[in-house]
Amino acid sequence: MDTNRREFLVSTVAAAAVAAVASRSGAEHPTTSATASTLMFYQKPAAHWMEALPVGNGRLGAMVFGGVETERLQLNDDTLWSGPPQRDWNNPEARQHLPEIRRLLLKEHNYPAADELTRQMQGPYNESYQPLGNLYLNFAEPAGADLYRRELNLATGVVTITYKANGVAFVRTIFSSAPAGVLVIRLTCDRPAGLTFTAMLDSRLRVNSTASGTDEIVLRGKAPVHVEPSYQVHAVDPVVYDNALGKGMHFEALVKVIATGGATTTNADSLSVKGANAVTLLLATGTGYKGFGKAPDATAEEISALCRQQINAAASTPFASLLQSHVADHQQLFGRVSLNLETAEASLRPTDERLLMVREQEEPELAALYFQFARYLLIASSRPGTQPANLQGIWNQDVRPPWSANWTLNINAQMNYWLAEPAGLGDCHAPLFDLISHLSVTGVPTAQVYYGLNGWTAHHNTDLWAQAPPVGEGFGDPTWANWPMGGAWLCQHLWQHHEFSQDNAWLRHTAYPLMKGCAQFMLGWLIPAGDKLVTAPSVSPENHFIGFNGKPIAVSIASTMDMAIIRDLLTNCIAAATILNEDLEFRKKLEEARSRLLSFQTGKYGQLQEWSEDFTEATPGLGHVSHLFPVYPGQQITPQESPALARAAGVSLDRRIQHGAGDAAWPCAWYVCLWARLGEGEKAHQRVLSMLRKSATPNLFNGDYKLFQIDGNLGVAAGIAEMLLQSHGGIIRFLPALPAAWSQGALTGFRARGGVEVHLEWKAGKAISATLLPHTEVELHLQAPRRQEISAIRAAGKAVQFSPVDGGTVSVMVKTGQRYQVSFSG
């Protein structure tokens, strides 16, 4: 046994012994059933926010640092935002510029002039997600600690910190409970009267922290009325508080201490525990947000009453019951899916060491851990009834967070949810559907004021208040600001949920009305150019082309992404209306419009063209590949159905990479998904490795020590799912982009379109067996991995008849409640 492995085993066993000792002394330590793909652990506290471990119940989040002398828990509530709910953000002068912009584009092809004028159709910037505060626990233990271990068990949703100081074993157990609605911190040790500490609350916002009685502290404050985006670096007054009118959201954090033994006292703004045997701290938060369209905000008194109700209910429940209900609730979601790749010796090491080692050598199980961590993050930041996961999920410590930590609709918000359906988390998709519903309300006046059209639209940014118009205040770059396609892209998620769930009632009452309203806007937004329908003004998000004046230009006619998103929306609306047997005349309008949409084109490099003209990109190495939407997350271009266009898409992607794009951060995640859809397993795998080597911080967040974006985490997980199982285009494909490095593995609980749960095992790069659990009666088309064939399908021990179909697939009828075993040859 080598020295490093011996040291690791010694430290692991010793840390487990600390936990066991503490458990025997009365600490309720959660059962650890984690594997190398579901356990993150470290042998030192977090020194930085990007090393801390996240917990969350969808609404209430915390970053746990695990310090020995001082524990810091940085706190967030997903409804704490700047800004008031009542605000008219539509620009009434915007619409008057539209005819001239279209004349400049369609008649004169004067793109520079149109580009400048388009800026006059912008409105104010949206608001920013805010940090609530921090809870500090200052302990009496000395700075030094032995046998230190800090872990996050993804399977239980619990952070545990164990160490030994002065011969005393200490254990902290921390989780954010969805059933109880509170953050729970349990402190235990194996020496009677061994716990002494002081608790304090603070915030970067304007707050007042006070003690309440002998066992509580409370933080009360007000959020700013407006926060300028962080990229507005020259803003004179970037954080605005309204002292005169009292606008801005009230918020509160209430902490209650329940100690066994010892003495609990308070002074002006802190709480002290001395000589306790065990302590439970309960933390509740509340904000003034009452819900979309509900105004005015809740008062400080109403918020306090809500926090008090939550604390009292939790305080009447034993800690063991709080833990048990939390774990059961969390596992009901997390436990649906497993993924195991080849386990190497490196998988036994601390997570930060595994990250360092993967720079030199592949560790497949680290990719499985990254996948499961993404599922954990979505569960922790997006539950039914909460807000959707924003750019940072729910974890943010900055008053001016990167890009306002809002919902950026030109890919980032959507990327957050690409994994939801295939990774068994359709429930967690629900908050995004709520946001779409809100935008369908605010987007109606935006459609009318800006464009004079019916239906609804949304642009590239939105916030808690569902702001729908283009932001920028006349100074924003049109390539991101003037893009009315955000709502149409979001509608893809409505249809996708139906594809996976087959819930026709939900389609009828929720999804289709939202999709129809957006399609009504798009029918009006399209204008004729010859015998084709185009969009004008149009941008390819975040990219510019070189104009005839030699300068970067954003605005032109009918970008590829515009055409692809509209084609996607119209196609899905037609399918939905057909299923529901509704709107025959409307369907005909959609079909006629779809038939006239400008087609995809190939450019001078053999690439998929990004614009309707074969312009030269101003930034060939831009991370955004907006024109590849029809490959993924769309399904209009596939190697099977449109091989020439698929090759052109591959050329586009290669060109971006050759010019330096897609090597890290969220664009790299998108590239994993794209290469997987194109069947390029090795290229997809290289992007996964790049994310782990260049974008993963010690706590596995996507970013660096200055910037965190959760979409990279969640997007890579979607890409990993696509590498192993695909179901677009009516075909379930097994291992469609399996790289050689993942030659052995197993997955359970993945979902496929058609309402099918899939389990799959493979060895030596070959599928061994698959199990299908259909939730509806449906005809499935199945495709074996390359160089393999489906040899048999059995249910209840009997052979099931299947038929060959073109392209090497087979067709089989399946019934609800049956379990189908698929065997492979080759």
Q: Would you mind describing this structure in some detail?
A:
By secondary structure, this protein is an alpha+beta fold. Among the domains are: 270 residues, Beta-galactosidase, Chain A, domain 5 (Distorted Sandwich); 86 residues, Immunoglobulin-like (Sandwich), CATH 2.60.40. The chain contains 18 helices and 36 strands. Strands 1-6-7-8-9-18-15-12-11 form a nine-stranded antiparallel sheet. A seven-stranded antiparallel sheet has the order 2-3-4-5-10-17-16. α17 runs antiparallel to α18. The longest helix is centred in the first third of the chain and has 22 residues. It is globular and about 80 Å long. The two termini are 39 Å apart.
Task: Describe the secondary structure blueprint for this structure.
Elements: H1 3-24, E1 39-42, E2 53-56, E3 60-64, E4 70-77, H2 98-106, H3 111-118, E5 133-139, E6 146-153, E7 158-165, E8 168-176, E9 183-189, E10 195-202, E11 206-212, E12 216-222, E13 226-227, E14 239-240, E15 250-260, E16 263-266, E17 270-276, E18 278-287, H4 300-315, H5 319-334, E19 338-341, H6 351-358, H7 364-381, E20 407-408, H8 412-415, H9 430-451, E21 461-462, H10 478-481, H11 486-501, H12 504-525, E22 527-529, E23 532-534, E24 545-546, E25 552-553, H13 560-580, H14 584-595, H15 643-658, H16 665-677, H17 681-695, H18 710-724, E26 725-726, E27 732-734, E28 745-752, E29 756-763, E30 766-774, E31 778-783, E32 789-795, E33 798-799, E34 803-805, E35 809-814, E36 820-825
Parallel strand pairs: 27-31
Antiparallel strand pairs: 1-6, 2-3, 3-4, 4-5, 5-10, 6-7, 7-8, 8-9, 9-18, 10-17, 11-12, 12-15, 13-14, 15-18, 16-17, 19-28, 20-21, 22-23, 24-25, 26-27, 28-29, 29-30, 30-36, 31-35, 32-33, 32-36, 34-35
